[in-house]
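Saturday, quiet lab. Running sequence design on the structure tokens for the scaffold JK sent over.
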């Protein structure tokens, strides 16, 4: 098993390429105003782009683990970017999409199983965990580039709103995933540095970490603080509350809209 995995183990899957194709076509439809319903086009564009970012998040974990010493990630199909290869396709893809639809929040989906006993050194373990949220950060920076580069001239309103909403999903995912809560990547970063006793006591809590975070987000004060932090980061990236709000308004096209975010149709 000394090799770095066969070429087949790294070939990008047709499933992932299909999702990218949907993202490209629906992105084009949003940009050109070609779609009869801009809301449906925004929904398909943002959802497919969100799934692409989930795949890249998990790929980052797997790729870092491969370089860290876990050569089994290739055989498991994690380097093909195929979301159907993940440990829990439901948890990793379906649930995050449902959360976006319900609440406009980026749920981090835990998915790739890394054989940690094959990896030596605490820094490597921390880096493997950090790789996922850093991917969301990179995605947010790319999505908001037109905003902070002041390059929005000629960018259609619907596309601008869609990018703003997509960026907000990446920011929420990055923040949530970076929390030092068992089961989330933020805990994975600090875990190697904790004593064996603490790690053993915390381990049974891991499956409930994400649930606890979402339970806390139902508390109005916590929710206001969390979204206040998200808004602060978004405005630092040049995106206004209005743009994010309109992105979500267009995304949830099946809801009754107040018409405030109506975009002109060609």
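Result came back. Writing it out in full:
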């Amino acid at each position: 098993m000394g090799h770095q995995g066969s070429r087949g183990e790294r070939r990008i899957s047709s499933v992932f390429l299909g999702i990218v194709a949907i993202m490209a076509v629906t992105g084009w439809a949003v940009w050109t105003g070609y779609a009869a319903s801009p809301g449906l086009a925004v929904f398909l564009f943002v959802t497919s782009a969100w799934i692409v970012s989930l795949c890249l998040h998990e790929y980052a974990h797997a790729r870092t683990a491969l370089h860290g010493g876990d050569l089994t990630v290739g055989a498991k199909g994690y380097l093909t970017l195929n979301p159907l290869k993940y440990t829990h396709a439901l948890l990793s893809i379906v649930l995050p999409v449902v959360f976006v639809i319900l609440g406009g929040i980026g749920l981090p989906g835990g998915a790739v199983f890394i054989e940690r006993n094959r990896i030596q050194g605490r820094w490597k373990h921390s880096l493997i965990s950090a790789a996922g949220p850093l991917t969301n950060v990179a995605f947010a920076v790319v999505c908001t580039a037109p905003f902070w580069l002041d390059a929005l001239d000629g960018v259609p309103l619907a596309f601008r709103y869609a990018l703003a909403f997509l960026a907000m999903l990446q920011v929420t995912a990055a923040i949530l995933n970076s929390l030092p809560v068992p089961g989330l990547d933020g805990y994975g970063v600090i875990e190697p540095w904790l004593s064996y006793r603490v790690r053993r006591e915390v381990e049974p809590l891991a499956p409930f970490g994400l649930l606890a975070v979402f339970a806390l987000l139902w508390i109005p004060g916590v929710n206001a603080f969390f979204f206040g932090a998200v808004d602060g980061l978004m405005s630092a990236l040049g995106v206004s509350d209005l743009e994010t709000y309109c992105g979500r308004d267009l995304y949830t096209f099946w809801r009754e809209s107040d018409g405030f975010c109506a975009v002109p149709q060609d």
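Notes for JK: Confidence is low (pLDDT under 50) at residues 1-5. The chain is about 65% helix and 0% strand. Ask whether to fix the surface positions before the next round.
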